[in-house]
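On clarity, I found the account of how folds are encoded harder to follow than it need be. Since the whole study asks how a given chain folds, the encoding of that fold should be made plain. The format is easy to grasp once an entry is in front of the reader. For illustration, here is how one protein appears when written out as sequence plus structure tokens.
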Amino acid sequence: MAELHIIGQIASAKEFEQLRLMCKWSFHAGMGWKILNGNHEGQTQECCDFYTNEPIWDHPLDLHYGTTSLQGSPKLLLQLFCRDNYNRIIFLAYGVCVVPLTPGFHELECHTWKPIGNWQDRLKDKFLGLTLQLKTPSILVNTQDRFELLTESMGVVKINLHILSRNFEKFGCDL
């Protein structure tokens, strides 16, 4: 069995209009991948840095996979939320990032987006903070089930990962 160890952090966010952000994250992988150790989902703390206008989370990630196939390699799904002026927690954006299989250090930038609907949905978003959300966000990591959505680009989440791999030579991969 080949093994992939992911150690790193969800570092920070940039280019968001909102300042008080938090991030729910989850790893998703295909049927041939099994979690041997670690948490596959979690949430960062709420962060607000008024000096840089970039929330800095430095939230740790540590996950160990075993696999019998390279198909369906892990992806990281991000869901960002913010706190508004009325202390409500409001959905902000989605982001999906492919976890590299190459050993070493990787600095990733995950571009985020939010779904937009018709003009009525946009008015609700602007004035009431009622942003459209997907019923099952995990559909975003499955490339076979993707469908066309109207979206609006949001900010970027910075992710730092150290990747360790073992026994991938069995699959003919010289990572």
Notes: Residues 119 and 125 are 10 Å apart (CA to CA). The first strand starts at residue 2 and ends at 14. The helical segments are 119-128.
